[in-house]
Structure formats: structure tokens, C-alpha cells
């Protein structure tokens, strides 16, 4: 929204700063963080009142969780999604198709996760939305997003798969690209969903991945940097750095309440949405190599577990 102020930079030179993606990315990060900080306690109190017993605790986890985690509300992803949405709409260029595509996937995946969480809370069971049904809906959302982004690109990379480390290798997948892109988006969403298990465990790797993809999006969307670094130039994707910045800010705010001992759980509402966001950014910037992202998350999880294990070293 604020990006339009740059159009008046001729009369007010200071407004030219809104033309820079870097400035707006920082603004989105700070805005999302303070939004979650400010509204977080109210959201947590409201969810706790409505959910009563909170998220059912798995019996196959640590026995202490059955006592210490009981009654902790879930659907904390609403806090993150609210922060991301507000910050992105405020600081992003709302004429950018990639920005709307990423937001659409994020919100759609968030709704799927919200319904899944709702079923679990109301039934006090781990059996939420059917796995097949959830994957099917996610796949449809992913395919639609890939079609829209391919149409927005309109160039030789619209349905092409680029190979990491090899700039000249471009494989045109044709219509199969939409299925492949959807697979990456769905896989990313469920990868974060599987990671979410301990206090603060999922959000930190997500923020690290968001920072990485935000940087990639900025470079890939800049013709000069893309040419210098010999990566594929994808016009318009630089705006996704603003979305990634908003995710980092909202993640920092959420971590304040989710760090051990957690006052709220992210739930499928957050994990599916955030994974879908990252997966869509990967497809948009032509960095779909899912192994890199998933292995990066695995390493982050391992390091987080090592960090948690040191709490007993006294």
C-alpha cells in the first residue's frame, strides 16, 4: 500500500525511499513483529477461553507434556498470519501478481489447517481432517497458484525447471510444471507441519528459511544482481522479499509467546500456511529444489534439539 507513495517522490523527494524493496522489507518486518507483540496476549486469551482444554497432547511424546502442556491453546498460527497479512498489505506493492499468489496460498493453507485444528479441539482427538482430503485441496490450490504465476511470467521460464548451479540448463516441463510446482508447495507445507512438535521448534527454521528465500527473491528479481551472480532473472519476484520479511517479523513476535514454556501452539493453522508460503516463493523464484529446503530444515531441527538437550547440563 505504502509503495504508491513513491509516485509522489517528484514533489517530495523523501518519498522516493518507498521505491526500494529493502526499505519496505525492513518496514514489513518491524510492523509484523510489533503487531504480534501487541495483539498476541489478546489472541491467546481469546483462544484459551474458546478452546477450553486446548490442543490434545499426544500420548507418544514425553510424559511430562501430558501435564505441562495440557490446556495450552492451539491455532497460534492466526497470530502469525495476521501479522504477515497486515504488514504485507501495508508495505507491499499490491500490483504485484506474485505477492497476491503467495498470500492466496498462505491463507488457503491456513484455512485448511484451521479447520483441521478446529476438528481436533472440538473432538479432543488427533484425527482431524482426512489426510487424503487435505492433500487433495492443497494440490488444487498449488496448481492454481502455479498457473497464475506462470501466466504472470510469460517468458521462457514460465513452465521451466531450472537446475541449481547450472545457469544454462533449463528444462521446459510444459503442463507437467504445474503438477511439479504444486508438489513442491504441498511438500513444503507438510514438511513444516511435521516439524512442529516442540516449543519454538518449527518457527525458528521457518524464519531462517524465510530469510534465505527473501534474499534469493530480492536477487532473482533484480536484473543487475541476477546477471552478476549468474542466476535466472525472474522479474517481479523481488517483491516477495517483503512477504518474507513480514514472516520473519511475525515469527519473532510469535516466538516470544511460543518459546519454552509455550503459551500457545502454532497448530496446523500456522505450520501448513508457513510451509505453503515458503514453497510458493521457491516456485516463483525458480528455486524449487525441495531437497535443499527440506535438508536445511532437518539440520535446523537437529541443532534445535541439541540446544534443548543442553538445558539439563547444570
Topology record:
Blueprint (H helix, E strand, L loop, with lengths): L20 H31 L13 H4 L8 H15 L5 H27 L7 H23 L6 E4 L2 E7 L3 H20 L7 H18 L2 H7 L10 H19 L8 H18 L5 H20 L5
Antiparallel strand pairs: 1-2
Helix pairs in contact: 1-3, 1-9, 3-4, 3-9, 3-10, 4-5, 4-10, 5-6, 6-10, 6-11, 7-9, 7-10, 7-11
Question: What are the salient characteristics of this protein?
Answer:
single chain, mainly alpha, two-stranded antiparallel sheet
Description:
- The protein has helices at residues 21-51, 65-68, 77-91, 97-123, 131-153, 176-195, 203-220, 223-229, 240-258, 267-284, 290-309; strands at residues 160-163, 166-172.
- The protein is mostly helical and 314 residues long.
- Helices cover 64% and strands 4% of the residues.
- The longest helix has 31 residues, at 21-51.
- Strand 1 and strand 2 (166-172) form a beta hairpin.
- The protein has eleven helices and two strands.
- Helix 7 (203-220) packs antiparallel against helix 9 (240-258).
- The protein has one domain.
- The chain has a two-stranded antiparallel sheet.
- It is globular.
- 44% of the residues are buried.
- The mean pLDDT is 83.
Amino acid at each position: 500500500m505504502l509503495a504508491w507513495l513513491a509516485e509522489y517522490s517528484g514533489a517530495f523527494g523523501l518519498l522516493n525511499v518507498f521505491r526500494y524493496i529493502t526499505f519496505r522489507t525492513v518496514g514489513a518486518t518491524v510492523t509484523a513483529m510489533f503487531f504480534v507483540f501487541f495483539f498476541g496476549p489478546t489472541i491467546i486469551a481469546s483462544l484459551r477461553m474458546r478452546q477450553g482444554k486446548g490442543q490434545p497432547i499426544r500420548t507418544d511424546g514425553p510424559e511430562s507434556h501430558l501435564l505441562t502442556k495440557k490446556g495450552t491453546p492451539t491455532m497460534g498460527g492466526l497470530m502469525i498470519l495476521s501479522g504477515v497479512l497486515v504488514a504485507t498489505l501495508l508495505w507491499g506493492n499490491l500490483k504485484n501478481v506474485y505477492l497476491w499468489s503467495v498470500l492466496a496460498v498462505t491463507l488457503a493453507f491456513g484455512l485448511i489447517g484451521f479447520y483441521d485444528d478446529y476438528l481436533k479441539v472440538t473432538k479432543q482427538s488427533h484425527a482431524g481432517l482426512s489426510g487424503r482430503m487435505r492433500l487433495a485441496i492443497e494440490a488444487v490450490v498449488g496448481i492454481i497458484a502455479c498457473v497464475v504465476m506462470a501466466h504472470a511470467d510469460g517468458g521462457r521460464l514460465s513452465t521451466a525447471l531450472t537446475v541449481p548451479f547450472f545457469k544454462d540448463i533449463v528444462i521446459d516441463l510444459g503442463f507437467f510444471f504445474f503438477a511439479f510446482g504444486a508438489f513442491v508447495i504441498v511438500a513444503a507445507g507438510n514438511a513444516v507441519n511435521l516439524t512442529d512438535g516442540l516449543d519454538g521448534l518449527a518457527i525458528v527454521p521457518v524464519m531462517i528459511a524465510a530469510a534465505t528465500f527473501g534474499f534469493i527473491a530480492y536477487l532473482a528479481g533484480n536484473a543487475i544482481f541476477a546477471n552478476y551472480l549468474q542466476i535466472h532473472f525472474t522479474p517481479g519476484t523481488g517483491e516477495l522479499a517483503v512477504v518474507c520479511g513480514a514472516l520473519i517479523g511475525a515469527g519473532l513476535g510469535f516466538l516470544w509467546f511460543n518459546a519454552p514454556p509455550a503459551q500457545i501452539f502454532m497448530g496446523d493453522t500456522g505450520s501448513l500456511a508457513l510451509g505453503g508460503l515458503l514453497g510458493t516463493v521457491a516456485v516463483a523464484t525458480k528455486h524449487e529444489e525441495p531437497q535443499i529446503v527440506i535438508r536445511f530444515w532437518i539440520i535446523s531441527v537437529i541443532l534445535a534439539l541439541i540446544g534443548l538437550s543442553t538445558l539439563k547440563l547444570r
